[in-house]
Amino acid sequence: MFRNIVREITAGVREHNMKRLKKAVAIIRDESLTCAKCEALSVPIKGTHNKYRCLECNRQFANTKHDVGSMLSRNDCAEFYDKAVSHLKGEASVEADSNKDDDVISSIARF
Ligand SMILES: [Zn+2]
User: Fold this and answer.
1) Could you please report the per-residue DSSP string of 13-58?
2) Cα(17) to centroid(ligand 1), Å
3) How far, in Å, from the CA of 102 to the mean position of ligand 1?
4) Does position 67 have pLDDT exceeding 80, yes or no?
């Protein structure tokens, strides 16, 4: 009985946290820019107002003002910043890999 309650609470918390993580990912993605050097996603750096870091080449740069810090805290998902960034990093490397495929395909097509 008690175990079932704990299990239900744990499942509920997990689901709630997943929602917060997804929200954090959406916010960060919305506030992100494209790296001028490698065109990968560059996420706003939490704790700054206009600094971004490229997920692919790690280049850090200043650009337009972002509001990621207050947007995350307003949506109660500030603690998910790091997780959300590594999630986006995973997506970025998947995209980079598929871009490499495109490069291969286009270089083949040129022949
Ligand atoms: Zn870059």
Assistant:
1) HHHHHHHHHHHHHHHHHHH-EE-TTT--EEEEPTT-SSEEEETTT-
2) 30
3) 18
4) yes
